[in-house]
Amino acid sequence: SPRASAGDAAQWPTVVAHRGASAYAPENTLASIDKAARLGFQWVENDVQRTKDGELVVIHDDSLKRTTDVAKVFPDRAPWKVKDFTAAEIARLDAGSWFGAAFTGTRVPTLTQYMREVEHNHQSLLLEIKNPELYPGIEQQTLKVLGNEGWLDQSHLDSRLIVQSFSADSIRIVHDLSPGIRTGFLGTPSVSALHEYAAFTDLINPSYGSISTSYVSAVHGFTGPHGTPMEVYAWTVDDAPTAWKVAGYGVDGIITNKPDVVRSALNGF
Ligand code: G3P
Ligand code: CA
């Protein structure tokens, strides 16, 4: 069974497999994190949303259409929103065949199933609370699953978990409920606003096209809620020249669908 290489976490910058190794296996599935582990990658990113009956599931879009066969199984239920389907209905869907015939039978994982595989693989998780405005209370519910799975102990908090969102409100809620968790804000706040973010977020995770060396230095000049310099993980970088450019800005992490491409580009950087 897949195991991430122990050495990966020590390398700079941290390379995070976006939605798993999603260039090579269907995004946000156990297959995509297993692929990342087989390639030797410690860190994986995912997206968490909620079903009609309150189960947390790992999927990126607010609709099931792009990454499952829902339109075939439930033809009359357009636009196939995640929040309008029960966990049992979603469990029937194929989340792999759209990507390739070899992945037929792959399922949309529940957050619990996903956490167990991440743990089994000895991986670390950049967990995104996706579209929190659609799912009131999802922060508390996510923390409950993390706690049940043993992910709120000190060793996981220290080095294996970051919770991020495009919603500053959502990140603030996570920080208030569970101050030991490292958090990340997805976006590029103005430098003059960074001091406000430093109260509740440890990382600023921007689209790589929106940053520069001076922006990354500005973020590094602030101390986050855990008393360490704020960090920058940039997304989504899938080719060598862009990896060189973005690493040159001094980022701490690079989020990529092709972790092997980014890592080999940066070897000896
Ligand atoms: O982790 C960064 C990235 O996932 C943010 O964008 O749309 O892929 O969730 P998106
Ligand atoms: Ca994401």
UniProtKB/TrEMBL annotation:
Species classification: Bacteria, Bacillati, Actinomycetota, Actinomycetes, Kitasatosporales
Domain GP-PDE residues, every copy: 13-266
Record Gene3D superfamilies: Phosphatidylinositol (PI) phosphodiesterase
Species annotation: Streptomyces hokutonensis
Keyword annotations of the record: Signal
Name of the molecule in the record: Glycerophosphodiester phosphodiesterase
PANTHER family cross-referenced by the UniProt entry: GLYCEROPHOSPHODIESTER PHOSPHODIESTERASE, CYTOPLASMIC (PTHR46211:SF1), GLYCEROPHOSPHORYL DIESTER PHOSPHODIESTERASE (PTHR46211)
Keyword Coiled coil: no
